[in-house]
Known about the structure:
mainly beta, single chain, 15% helix
Amino acid sequence: MKDWCLEVWGDYACFTRPEMKVERVSYDVITPSAARAIFESILWKPAIKWNITKIEILNPIKWISVRRNEVGKVIPTPTAKQMEGVLKSPMGIFIEDSRQQRAGLFLKNVRYRIYGYFDMKSDEEAGKYAAMFQRRASQGQCYHRPYLGCREFACDFRLVDGPENETVQPLDITQDLGYMLYDMDFEMNPNNPPALFYKAQIKNGVIDTDARRVEVRG
């Protein structure tokens, strides 16, 4: 199956480091799992599985520090008695009592070209899914609005038919990013998938993320 190429960009992004716990601190670049989610936002079907092979960094890596107010509780689901109309304690939450101020270190003014292909998980014809993705991506259609790590950081996208003909080339940077989140292994445990990591390296503005070439481990 051919590699598709999407150019994605947005004002802000946060690809959260799992080791930072409470505070949100982004990786330097988009993770393969976040890139996969963008492809899935355009076309998601149970019969296909998206794989990310390459990421090109088009804008310089810039940071912004933000302090935000967040709610530290989740609204509880109604009990059986509440569903029957029996009055008990209020179901909602009082924001002022549950407000938490947290700092975040995010990326700003990001732009990437991401490459991916899909594998078939059934005996269905792959051609129809390829045509569906081509039509949706070329017309700017999506299943839900794609985002850059966090849902509040929505992004724009366009289908790149000929990446070799693009005037904007990847940044001329080479850097070792250390171990980075690759994806969650839903095939091993759909309910509580373990995290998979890989050693990310930027070479002339390009990150190789193809699982057939890079070492991915838990």
